[in-house]
Design goal:
The protein has about 675 residues and is α+β, with helices and mostly antiparallel strands. Helices cover about 35% and strands about 20% of the residues. The mean pLDDT is about 85.
């Protein structure tokens, strides 16, 4: 490394190389029009790297050498989004899109809108900030109001300009939002290489992109085939249009998806959606619908937002994709409560960009209802283009040699007897120490919604349980005594073990409602846990509560109350709680201030929700300032719909009420607890 004064010729040459390399990156990754060979490009990059190594003062924030990755980071700082990165409301049919259009036209009265219609890319939303034309920050969407600052990882993406390419002057500050994704062919190539090297493969391109952006080593990120499309320019201007902003983004050097149209009617927008629903597999990337936006920025600002969604845009989603395949076997998975869930093993079938080889069968009654047998040809659907589900046995004569599935007498994990509780659809393993149950309880305790112990995923938990280092959640807080043994495990190492132990130590200070949820009490979801923490304010008080004390609380029914009493009556559970307290886990809390995320909004809840009972969700809504109604009317703001929503869903759609899923509800309130 040289020191001292850098000559003018070296400065000039470094600047020339930066500009030339940036230009070639733009031609290759954005325009797809390379003009030099890979060898010539590599020679320029190598020359610039050598100059910067000899003269560290030469490296600038926009140097293309940053794309190869820098030093790993220990954690991602949290940054605020202004304005928030809102999630879109969804429409699932032309009728719902026309209802969106009707609401817009009613609101705009005599000033009818034009719509900009573009692809709904199936990737990860990010926000990029530029000061004086240079990239200074990249962040994930997070919960919409806050995200992780991942600038070092964003810099490795070749299609993201490190310095704006358009002619100056630039705005002193500029923010661009877009989608990070992987092209399908690059994803397949990467997965093939990982499989050949014995590494775990990714499920689909979106998961691969999301997992890559969360990595803390930019050097690894740089070797992953991430791509970027810009779709929004945050502008202070009240005038202009979205289409004009897209043209400006192209001028500044950003890749903008070419498949977008400006239309004057909703029927034209629907025609665009219909065109791509049948042709989406022809694209080199994944999409799951189209986005319909009002083109006028003035109209967008006039209409504003509803909670966490803009009034002026909607995502018109594609229907679920289906495929036919054969059930080769049915296996049983054992959960943390001992419940045995049948899982269909399928001949791999490619559906919607993902190879599907397994599908849940819920319980024995579901199998009987389908009249499903091992060896049957079945129709598989990716519900919402995500969760594989067998919806029926394929039509036609049944194959010879198929066989019925029969529940075994013993647990597939530990061989203990299994039983079916009266009134329930599930069968259960009766052995509380069954390794699968132990793993499930530890994974639940460490999960993000519970004690949020980073680094304690499924694979790590399996190792700890198999080595008998952890049998209960309390054992996690004695793992520091086995540090030397952990460090010597394959693929663990000093740094990962240190980070895990630090995360375990940090979890001791989680708020009380997190601990109540983490204990894994039957029928106590996150919402009920918050209610219990708010009412009792300590684990000791909760453990001493009688059934009558509990049922007197709004949102706590007889079944939940009985489950709580049974949990704390179990000597083994009481012992674990005492051990957690002795380890220094926080056992008390105070009443938390009420949230305001849903202030003044009205909801009706319908259907079965995975995150708790309707009472749980009612408590959460009212706790955030909202109100829950019993019937659907024009005064309603949202219908929160779970599985099998019934007639309320039809009525809401007739009235143009916004229908939201459980996931969208969670996005609305964010991580306020």
């Amino acid at each position: 490394m040289k020191s001292g004064k850098i000559s003018e010729s070296v400065f000039r040459r470094a600047g020339e190389l930066r500009r030339e390399i940036a230009g070639h990156d733009h031609r290759y990754y954005v325009l797809a029009e390379p003009v030099i060979s890979d060898e010539a490009y590599d020679m320029m990059m190598r020359e610039l790297q050598e100059l910067e190594a000899e003269h560290p003062g030469l490296r600038t924030p926009d140097s293309p050498t940053l794309r190869v990755g820098g030093e790993p980071t220990r954690e991602f700082p949290v940054v605020a989004h202004s304005p928030p990165m809102l999630s879109l409301g969804n429409a699932y049919s032309p009728e719902e899109a026309r209802e969106f259009d009707r609401r817009i036209r009613d609101l705009l009265a005599s000033d009818p809108p034009s719509y900009s219609v573009e692809m709904k890319l199936d990737g990860v939303a990010v926000a990029l900030q530029y000061r004086d034309g240079v990239l200074t920050r990249g962040a994930t969407r997070g919960n919409g109001t806050e995200g992780d600052e991942i600038t070092s990882n964003i810099r490795t993406i070749r299609s993201v300009p490190l310095r704006l390419i358009g002619d100056p002057p630039f705005s002193p500050f500029l923010e661009v939002r877009g989608e990070v994704l992987m092209m399908k062919d690059e994803f397949e190539k990467m997965n093939k290489q990982r499989a050949e090297q014995g590494e775990k493969t990714f499920v689909n391109p979106r998961n691969a992109a999301a997992g890559t952006l969360k990595m803390q080593d930019p050097g690894v990120v740089a070797r992953r085939p991430l791509a970027f499309f810009a779709y929004s320019l945050i502008s202070a201007s009240e005038e202009g249009s979205h289409e004009e902003n897209l043209r400006e983004l192209r001028r500044l050097g950003f890749p903008v998806n070419k498949h977008h149209v400006l239309v004057r009617t909703i029927d034209e927008a629907i025609a665009f959606w219909e065109h791509w629903e049948t042709r989406r597999d022809s694209l080199p990337y994944e999409i799951d619908g189209v986005v319909i936006k009002i083109d006028s920025l003035r109209h967008q600002r006039m209409l504003g937002n509803i909670a966490k969604s803009p009034r002026w845009a909607v995502a018109l989603k594609f229907s679920s994709r289906k495929g036919e395949t054969t059930v080769t076997d049915i296996l049983l998975q054992v959960g943390r409560t001992g419940a045995l869930t049948p899982v269909a093993i399928l001949e791999p079938v490619f559906i919607g960009g993902t190879t599907v080889s397994r599908a849940t069968l819920h319980n024995i009654d579901y199998i009987l209802e389908l009249d499903l047998r091992i060896g049957d040809k079945v129709v598989v659907e990716r519900g919402g283009d995500v969760i594989p589900k067998i919806i029926q046995v394929a039509e036609g004569p049944r194959r010879r040699g198929v066989r019925r599935f029969r529940m075994p007498r013993g647990c597939p994990e530990c061989g203990s007897p299994i039983q079916r509780v009266e009134g329930e659809a599930n069968h259960y393993c009766v052995n509380n120490r069954c390794p699968a149950q132990v793993r499930g309880r530890i994974e639940h305790f460490a999960s993000r919604s519970a004690m949020d112990i980073e680094g304690l995923g499924e694979a790590a938990v399996r190792v700890l349980v198999d080595l008998a280092l952890v049998r209960t959640a309390a054992d996690l807080y004695t793992l520091h005594k086995a540090k030397e043994q952990l460090v010597n495990l394959e693929r663990w190492g000093e740094k990962s073990v240190h980070n895990l132990l630090q995360s375990i130590e940090k979890s001791k200070q989680r708020p009380l409602h997190r601990l109540v949820f983490a204990l894994g009490i039957g029928h106590v979801g996150a919402g009920v846990a918050a209610v219990l923490a708010d009412r009792f304010r300590s684990i000791r008080s909760l453990s001493e509560a009688s059934r009558d004390d509990l049922v007197a609380i709004d949102a706590i029914g007889p079944e939940i109350a009985a489950s709580i009493v049974a949990f704390f009556s179990n000597p083994e559970n009481r012992k674990i709680v005492r051990q957690l307290e002795a380890a220094g886990v926080q056992m008390t809390g105070s009443t938390e201030p009420k949230g305001t995320a849903l202030e003044g909004k009205t909801f009706v809840i319908t259907g079965a929700l995975a995150g708790g009972s309707r009472d749980d969700f009612k408590k959460r809504i009212t706790g955030e300032g909202g109100k829950v109604l019993s019937s659907v009317s024009r005064k309603l703001d949202y219908l929160l719909a779970g599985a099998d929503p019934g007639s309320k869903l039809e009525r809401a759609r007739e009235l143009g009420i916004q229908v939201i899923s459980e996931e969208e509800f969670e996005q609305m309130i964010g991580n306020s607890r």
